[in-house]
Each structure stands twice: as structure tokens, then as C-alpha cells.
Write a structure and sequence with these properties.
Helix 1 runs parallel beside helix 5 (about 115-130). It contains twelve helices and 20 strands. It is about 35% helix and about 30% strand.
Length: about 400
Amino acid sequence: MKKQFQICVVGNGAVGKASALALAQTGYSVMLLSPSQAESSASKWKASGEWDSRVYALNHATKNLLSSLKAWDAMDQARIAPIEAMDIKGDDAQHAGHLSFDAYGAHVGALAWIVEDGNLNHALDNALQFTQGVEIVQATATQMHVDAEEVQIDLNNGSAIHTSLVLGADGANSWVRAQTDIGLDYRSYDQLAVVANFSCDKPHHGVASQWFLGAEGIVALLPLAGSQVSLVWSAPDKLAETLLSETAEQLASRLNKLPQLALGELHPLPPAVPRGFPLRLMRAHSFAAERTVLVGDAAHVFHPLAGQGMNLGFADVIALLEALGPADANTDCGEARALQRYARSRKEEVLLMQLATDGLERLFTSDFTPLRVLRNTGMNIVNRVPFLKRSLIKHALGKSPSIFS
């Protein structure tokens, strides 16, 4: 069986789904190739009613994109928590560093919004059901053949897809990327992100808190709806193994000892089973090859200390839409010049994020005393200089292109 589409999106994550929605909305015929699943994680989230331990801090540009796709309002709004302020603490008692931001000072209603993975994907799944121009095929790609005119993707069910452009949104271990000659920068941080959710005795007031603990890693407590928070502890492998082997109550006991914790006692939320995700740096040498583009984790994976990974993926989608332009029957959407425009437009921002997150991770996980003094002093200097704070806030809010304003 032969199926013909202008664009084939490979991947079933939030960035892949948003890509398919946005491209179809622009007028392209799109197929979303998704692995077969008995029940999606989003459906399990909806059925269980439990708080998803995997959450994202979505910025203004991402919110505008999701709103244009009719996905933002489709999410359960009662489970979305605005970040009204950020409070970052250093790790040296004698030269304690401190840095804070707030929405009031940035002249916005919120710095970002904390959204559960299940809530986001459930809304995108619903939007896909009502979008014309998108066909969802549950199968696994086995081979990809690229020539000057089109791409053929063979599937494990015996059928084949013919398309002008393949969009790889299939995660850090991207199958699509592996079919190209695109090189990859890679470094393991020898850390796991340990995630879990907790209720707290005192209200969080919409504050996202972060602690740099030197050799013990980086702890972030992100506000959930109500008096609840989501933990992301970027911990060295050995410590992470210990954290994951302990009960959620023991993990809560560790968190209750954090300096200047303003939340009272923390208590585990069901399912009360911490999870761990390996942390690594990955960046493709190019985001485009012949009739192929990469978005999201297929193109770049960074340390979560800045909380911008998902936002960068959605920024990829916005940049690709601008590079391709509206669908035209006479335009080849896999044409090399358009794909190179996309790759060039993403190169600087992604490289800067790589340098920033990798540099900060190296700086803040060192126990070398002069570096400890330097990093804490630096935080205090930035906290006292309005211009520097405004620059950081502007970057965190994200750029909002006119097509999604």
C-alpha cells in the first residue's frame, strides 16, 4: 500500500503532535507516524487522576503557539499553575548567593506555567482528532529512502509512505536522525533527574524555588495547583540511586532539610514512587539534511537547570513554520533552501542554550572553593543589577513571533 503526504512527522511526543497540528493548520497534508500503543500515557493520566511527576515550565511563546492550535484551552486549567516568581539559592553559607525574579517586575501576569506531561499530551491528542489534514498511523518505520524528488518510508506493517519532507520528532534516540549523515555532540552528566510530587503545609504562592547544592546537585521545587509542588532533583548517579531506592517519605525528609525552605513539611503525593531520567547534553551538528528536519529532543537535549528544554522544542516548530511558509500546491516543502533557512534560524539560540546550561552545570556542581565563592558572588551581583535581570527574564519568557501573537 502506498500513501502520499507532503510531510511525515515521526514521533508521538508533544513537540511532534504540535508540529503535525501546526503544519496541517497551515495547509499541508500531514501524516503523524506514531508507534503502536495499547493505551497512551495521556489516557492513563486522565484515567488515574494522579499528578504526573513529569512537568514542564512553558513560557509565553509556547503558550501562544498552543493557544493557536486550540490546545491550551483544551487542557485542564485547574491543573495548570502559574509561576509568579523564581527564587534561586546558592550553596555557600558564608557567601550565600541569591537570585530572584517576579512577574510584577517583568510586567507580565506570570513568568511561565507549570503543566503536566499528561495534561499537555491529552489536549494535543484531542486537538488532533478534530484537525483536518492530519492522518495518524500507528506503525514503526523500518527503512528510509531519500532521493531528489521524495522520501519513501517503509513500515513494519508492509506499507510505505511517500512524502516530500520527513520531520524527526522522535526523541533523543531519534531513528530519523540515525538515517541521515548528521553528526552529534554528546556528553553524559552522570546524573539522573529524580522527579516526584509533594503536598506542602504552607502555600507556595506561585514561587518556583531552586537550590544549587554543589556536589549534591541541583534541586528545584516547582508550583503545582493548590499547595503542591513538583520536585526535579538533578543528582549525581550514586546519590540518585540512593534517592530512588528510598521511600517517598524518606525523600520528603531529605527535602524538608533544605535551607530556607518556606513550604513547611512536605508529604508525598500518590503514586508516591520517585522516577529517574538520565541527564545528558546532545546537539545535532545540523537540524536539516536532504528532505529531512529535526525538532525537539531529536535535535537537542540540555540539562534541565534552566527549564527550557520543551520551550526550545516548540520554538523549533515556530521557526519551521516561518521557514516553510503557507502551503502552496506549486511549492516543494522539502526544498533545500527552506530547510537550510530553518537550520540557520535555530543554530544561534540552541548553541547559546547549550553553552549556558553546560557552563552553569559545570560551575555549580564543583566543590572547588574559589568557584563556590565566584558563583555565589555572581548570583548576588546579577540580583542587584536591574539590566541583567531584565535580560534574563526576557530570554526566559521566550520570543513570540507575530504569527502566534
